[in-house]
Amino acid sequence: MELGLSLSVVLFVLGLVGVLVRRNLIMMLMSLEVMLNATGLAFIVAGSRWGQADGQIMFLLILTLAAAEVGVGLGLALQIFHRFHTLDADSMNEMKG
Amino acid sequence: MALILFYITSAVAIFATVMMITRLNAVHGLLYLILSLLSVGVLFFLLGAYFAAVLEVIIYAGAIMVLFVFVIMMLNQGKKTIAQERMWLQPGIWIGPSLLALILFVEMLVVIAFGGNAETGHVVTAKQVGIALYGPYLLAVELASMLLLAGLVGAYHLGKPMLSTSKNGRKS
Question: How far are the Cα atoms of A75, B12, B72 from residue A29, in angstroms, in the given order?
C-alpha cells in the first residue's frame, strides 16, 4: 500500500514537472492528465486498502473531470493555435491584467 | 508473485511517464502517455479494482487519447504535413512503447496462467461500486452530469468559430 501511494506521489510530481517545464500546450495538457491519473491511483489504493467502494467512486468523478477538462482544454488550444499560429504557452503574454 | 508484478508495472509506469515529459514531439509523447495510462490500469487490476481498471483502459487510454490524436492531427495542416508524417513514422520510434506494451502483455499472460487472482488488496467489485454510486453518492452523479454538460457546451462554443472561419484565422 505504501508502494502504491508513493508511486502516485512520484507520478503526480512527474506530471507537475511536465506542466512546469514544457511550454507546448498539448504537452502541458498531457501532463495534467498524468497528474489527475496519479490522484485517481491514490484513491484506488486507499479504497483497496480499506475494502470500500468510495475510492473507485472518487476515481469515477476524477475521470469525469478529466474528460470535461480535456474537451475544454483542447478547444482552447485550438483557439490559441488559430489566433497566434503557435502552441507556445509563452506567446500569450499579451494579456494586460 | 503479485508484488513482483506490482513492482514491474510501477517501473513501467514511471519510465513511460518520464519518457512522455521528455519527448520533444507531441505524438511521441502521446505514445508513451498511452503506455503510462495502460500500466496504471494494470495497477488497478492488481489492486483488485477491476471496474476502475476497465474504465481506465476504455475512457483514458481510449476516448481521451483519441481526442488528443484528433487535435494534434488537426493542428498539423499544410504543405509539409506529408514529410512530417514520414518523419514521425520512423520505425525506431515504435520500439520503446512496443517493448513496454509487451511487458504489460506478458504480465497479463502470467496472471492468466496463475489462475487470474493476483490482487494485493481487497477486491471491490463493480456491484459494490454501483450500489454506492446510486445510493449515498447520487448527488455526486448528478453534479458529474452537470460538469459533463458544461464541458460539452464549452467545447462546442470554443470549437464553433473554427468550423466557419478555418481558412482565415484572426490575426492578433
Answer: 12, 21, 12
CB contact under 8 A, A45 and B47: yes
SS (H, E, C) chain B: CHHHHHHHHHHHHHHHHHHHHHCCCHHHHHHHHHHHHHHHHHHHHHCCCHHHHHHHHHHHHHHHHHHHHHHHHHCCCCCCHHHHHHHHCCHHHHHHHHHHHHHHHHHHHHHHHCCCCCCCCCCCCHHHHHHHHCCCCHHHHHHHHHHHHHHHHHHHHHHHHHHHCCCCCCCC
Beta bridge partners of A88: A24
What ipTM goes with this model? 0.89
Tell me the whole-structure pTM to 2 decimals.
0.85
Q: What is the CA radius of gyration of chain A?
A: 16
Q: Which residues of A touch B157 (CB under 8 A)?
A: 75
- Residue A61 DSSP code: H
**Do residue B133 and residue A50 have CB atoms under 8 angstroms apart?**
no
Q: How far is CA B80 from CA A25, B75, B84, in A?
A: 21, 12, 6
pLDDT at B157 over 60: yes
Chain B residues touching residue A24 (CB < 8 angstroms):
26
Torsions phi, psi of B49, nearest 5? -100, 80
Residue in the structure block whose three cell numbers are 502517455: B33
* CA dist list (Å): B58 to A63, A70, B38, B117, B124: 11, 15, 10, 22, 19
**Highest mean pLDDT: which range of B58-62, B75-79, B111-115, B161-165:** B58-62
Eight-state DSSP code of residue A24: B
